[in-house]
Design a protein that fits this description.
single chain, 590 residues, mainly alpha, 2 domains, two-stranded antiparallel sheet, two-stranded antiparallel ribbon, 22 helices, 4 strands, transmembrane helix, sodium transport, neurotransmitter biosynthesis, High affinity choline transporter 1
């Protein structure tokens, strides 16, 4: 393989620019959020809560507009059996940001939480917080691994350099500036990366459109030229599958730490909402060049290009249609600029996910579950170590695991099926408790895993109505693969079942314990008796020797979480808007 010197120089210059911006952002904001009693660890996680509209809008948009977003959108528009009708990510994630901004951003930000898991641990206890950390961590790590893997494949298409080397170097740069500056470095590099993606892809589109091998995309949108029309269509049999996937993107895109890290770093709750709406618009705008590149790929006579006689879909390379269009339909200097855009997209997502995973571990697992007396500097070092460890883990998976996309699909489903209904319950449903949370977790997990996962060759043990056996042919090898496709919207049904299980079991256990049907000694999770005994006894007057003893004069009742732990969940100085700081008090307002 030959190394294209111009491409290599372009990538090196781009990476140096990103590294410079990351280090500059860390130096510029080294004392932000630390003064006036602030903590360095919180500054790394949420950037001193002073991220403004400009930087905030860019960094929240860049969280979604990653390598998977721009490559995946182009791929689905290009694929003959799918087309634009199945490219759901742009509208799905844009609506996800709108819904998040309308309903979730304000209550989370106004209470001054530091991570997404804080309200869960505050209401359900540290054990349940640890359980919910598992799907959240899996989602972040597998997502990082999937996009790093995509980056390696992209770079190898255009520049002909070693995949492993390109992935490792990209990951090291992202890890380094995240280590140095935390959220500030991630946010400021996102501004540069999003600008590069926008300019890089838009520069490439006119050159690709004007290539002689490309037919008029307005004609190929509705008529068969080289393959079926790229607008695509939804068959009647697939309508529930389409709806299920759309709700997965729209609602499953909310309960991610990468999103709430931006929400919680905003300078006020109102700003957090505005950032969500800005990012929704940004996601749609950034998807346009990807849609056009997918349409160009579907309108190209590949026999007239340097790619070869077979189309990418016939070589099982549809997932790389974006870099293939850049290389074979654009001049070299333009394709290298576009390559920088793809690299930017990947790094802008990888750094966010790695920081999110380390924030949740350092705060919700290490500090609140194991080392409640840990100093601020200790938490900072735990964060730095886990940034490196999680970054190395994602990189290793990108290089060594062939089914990394399958792992990410499954983990993102678990985030939707398990964490979203829990978030809904903890913020908006009064009276849910740890027993209901555990029941919801188990119901959601079993119903989702039971449906199987073709990408991981995981067979289903629950066959939902309307399931079919689908045949997949690998064009290069001629191998035929059969897998079960669930056309029933089982992911959304699993999510609803998880939510209902949480509510029903919470109220059932509350009734059983408070009515005396179950002895208080069986409340082994301290979720009902200990938690509610104070509010029950507040209404009662204890009589002893005919003297009234007020509850406040007695020893305090032990709660599921100690006051010292509960107090660490909210930073009172961060409550920029008038808002209560506990889920229970929020419920009482509604």
């Amino acid at each position: 393989m030959t190394i294209h010197v111009e491409g290599l120089v372009a990538i090196v210059l781009f990476y140096l620019l990103i590294l410079f911006v990351g280090i500059w952002a860390a130096w510029k904001n080294k004392n932000s959020g630390v003064g006036d009693g602030g903590e360095r660890s919180e500054s790394i996680m949420v950037g001193g809560r002073d991220i403004g509209l400009f930087v905030g809008g860019f960094t929240m948009t860049a969280t979604w507009v990653g390598g998977g977003y721009i490559n995946g959108t182009a791929e689905y528009v290009y694929l003959p059996d799918y087309g634009l009708a199945w490219a759901q990510a742009p509208f799905g994630y844009a609506l996800s940001l709108v819904v998040g901004g309308l309903f979730f951003a304000k209550p989370m930000r106004s209470r001054g939480y530091v991570t997404m898991l804080d309200p869960f641990q505050l209401l359900y206890g540290k054990r349940m917080g640890g359980l919910l950390f598992i799907p959240a961590l899996m989602g972040e790590i597998f997502w990082s691994a999937a996009i790093l893997s995509a980056l390696g494949a992209t770079l190898s298409v255009i520049v002909d350099i070693n995949i492993n080397m390109s992935v490792v170097i990209s990951a090291l740069i992202a890890i380094f500036y995240t280590l140095v500056g935390g959220l500030y470095s991630v946010a400021y590099t996102d501004v540069v990366q999003l600008f590069c993606i926008f300019v890089g892809l838009w520069i490439s589109v006119p050159f690709a459109l004007s290539n002689p091998a490309v037919a008029d995309i307005s004609v190929s949108a509705k008529e068969v030229i080289y393959q079926s029309p790229w607008l695509g269509k939804i068959e009647p049999n697939d309508k529930w599958l389409w709806v299920d996937n759309f709700f997965l993107l729209m609602l499953g895109g909310i309960p991610w730490q990468v999103y709430f890290q931006r929400v919680l770093s905003a300078s006020s709750a109102t700003y957090a909402q505005v950032l969500s709406f800005l990012a929704a618009f940004g996601c749609l705008v950034m998807a346009v060049p990807s849609v056009l590149i997918g349409a160009i790929g579907a309108s190209t006579d590949w026999n007239q290009t340097t790619y070869g006689s077979l189309a990418p879909k016939d070589k099982d390379e549809s997932d790389m249609i974006l870099p293939i269009v850049l290389q074979h339909l654009c001049p070299p200097y333009v394709s290298f600029f576009g390559l920088g855009a793809v690299s930017a997209a990947v790094m802008s997502s990888a750094d966010s996910s790695i920081l999110s995973a380390s924030s949740m571990f350092a705060r919700n697992i290490y500090q609140l579950a194991f080392r409640q007396s840990a100093s601020d500097s200790e938490i900072v070092w735990v964060m730095r170590i886990t940034i490196f460890v999680f970054g190395a883990l994602a990189t290793a998976m990108a290089l060594l695991t062939g089914s990394v996309y399958g792992l990410w699909y499954l983990s993102s489903d678990l985030v939707y099926v398990i964490i979203f209904p829990q978030l809904l319950s903890v913020l908006f449903i009064k009276g849910t408790n740890t027993y209901g949370s555990v029941a919801g977790y188990i119901f959601g997990l079993l119903l989702r895993i039971g449906g199987g996962e073709p990408y991981l060759k995981l067979p289903p043990f629950i066959y939902y109505p309307g399931w079919v056996t689908v045949e997949k042919i690998h064009h290069l090898t001629g191998d035929v693969e059969y897998f079960v496709q669930q056309r029933f919207p089982f992911k959304s049904v699993s999510m609803v079942a998880s939510f209902l299980a949480n509510v029903v079991f919470s109220y059932l256990t509350k009734y059983l314990f408070e009515s005396g049907m179950l002895s208080h000694k069986y409340d082994f999770l301290d979720a009902v008796v200990s938690k509610h005994s104070k509010e029950i006894m507040d209404k009662a007057t204890l009589v002893s020797n005919h003297d009234n003893i007020i509850l406040s004069e007695m020893a305090p009742v032990r709660q599921a979480l100690g006051a010292s732990i509960a107090g660490t969940f909210t930073n009172t100085e961060a409550l920029s808007d008038d808002g209560e700081s506990s889920p229970e008090s929020f419920h009482s307002e509604n």
